[in-house]
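User: Um, what's this?
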Amino acid sequence: MTENINTLISSQYLFFILDNEKYALKTDNIKEIVDLQNIRKVPKSNKCIKGVTNIRGELIPVIDLKIRLDIGEVIKNRKTSLIIVNILDSLDGKNVPIAIMVDSVVEVEDIFEVDILETPIFGTKIDEKYIQNIIKFEDNYITLLKIDVLLDIEELSSVD
């Protein structure tokens, strides 16, 4: 008896909390996770950009993911974390590190392809353009975010 090949293929996903709800990102572009650092404000920037932080000598822009998703603002506390993601800048072809501020990081899990489901056409509290799929994990449904859309450098560079 042979199993369907899709049940055997898995990838790693990082689960984190925003507004008491669990979300996920595929770990492919994630560089590291760090505790909240001191953030220096940057004038005349997009409202979701909280500023820049210095991580090992590198200045990295910090995005408040709740503001980006239009679901509030991250309230800083001891669990607040920064997820450092490398995003390809389409203008110069280089990877750019960006820090995403989240309420807390939960875990990294292997998820089988069979547990990646289509996105429903209704019932989400965030704009569907940011949703890649839904992950079924331990009898829960977790929103998998589109990192390239969330952190579109051209869009983030515009001042609103």
Q: What stands out?
A: The mean pLDDT is 90.
